[in-house]
Design a protein that fits this description.
283 residues, 2 domains, 0% strand
Length: 283
């Protein structure tokens, strides 16, 4: 029964995120059960102070439009990464070959088969005869706004990571004040201290297992997407200049790590040999 829900989760989640969540929660639960049991660590008022206070402070700090983006940012983190820098390079080389052989207008039939909106935008600009400087400016502006959107998502979770330990400490102070009022009864000191420390535990857990890791994952995703978009932009500029496809390939793979460069160039070479053999057999 558990596998029924686990398998779809593995399909939509980055495996490192899944392992991290399961590993982190598992280690904490193991430590809890080795002690006094789960019921000791469940205290609704402490949870309300920490989680409710964190969200209240976040609402004060950010406009409602930004708060509504939390779910989108979280989904982006949980999904498998789709920003492979090498992925658009074979298509860009193919487009460079077609543009060199049949002109830029020959690329118009290729657009409907592309699922990358940024690449489609660049090709449309080239096909419409936009100047190279304007093409670069427009695509760089699109990249800048993408970075700004992602930066706001990161800031949101970083702010929550900052607030949650603070509200945990506020809850602890509330518990300590309540404890000091009943100091005449020694039997209440232990339970009261336990409840006071509960909010600190919740705050640290929320900051270090949820908010900060999500912010870090968003930052990593942003770096991957930025690299891929820069590759696409440089490819579009060279396609517009009708550069030699071999030159286009060498420039674009220079963005990749050495091992990945060889794999992309070898795959492209094999693809070219297959196309040449098919053309010969057809003739």
């Amino acid at each position: 029964m558990f596998l029924q829900y686990l398998i779809p989760a593995v399909n939509i989640m980055d495996i490192t995120t899944l392992i991290g969540v399961i590993g982190g929660v598992g280690c904490i639960l193991f430590a809890i059960f080795q002690g006094s049991g789960l019921a000791t660590f469940v205290h609704i008022p402490s949870l309300l102070i920490t989680v409710g206070g964190t969200f209240a402070a976040t609402l004060i700090n950010f406009p409602m439009a930004e708060i509504l983006k939390i779910s989108n940012a979280a989904i982006k983190v949980l999904k498998s990464p789709n920003f492979d820098a090498a992925r658009p390079i074979p298509d860009l080389i193919t487009f460079a070959e077609k543009a060199r052989q049949g002109g830029l207008l020959s690329l118009e039939n290729e657009i409907e088969n592309i699922d990358d909106e940024f690449l489609v935008m660049g090709l449309n600009l080239v096909i419409d005869g936009t100047s190279p400087n304007d093409v670069r400016d427009i695509m760089e502006t699109e990249i800048d706004y993408m970075l700004e959107r992602h930066r706001k998502g990161q800031q949101l979770f970083l702010a929550m990571a900052k607030y949650s330990p603070g509200f945990g400490m506020i809850g602890t102070l509330i518990g300590l004040i309540a404890m000091l009022k009943t100091m005449n009864d020694p039997s209440t000191i232990g339970p009261s201290m336990s409840v006071a420390l509960m909010t600190t535990f919740y705050g640290a857990l929320m900051a270090n297992l949820v908010c900060m890791p999500i912010a870090g994952k968003l930052k990593a995703r942003t770096s991957d997407e930025l690299l891929m978009r820069n590759i696409i932009m440089e490819g579009i500029i060279m396609i517009q200049a009708q550069s030699n496809p071999r030159f286009v390939a060498k420039v674009l793979v220079s963005y990749l790590p050495p091992k990945q460069r060889e794999a992309v160039l070898n795959a492209e070479a094999r693809g070219g040999e297959v196309a040449s053999e098919e053309a010969t057999s057809t003739a």
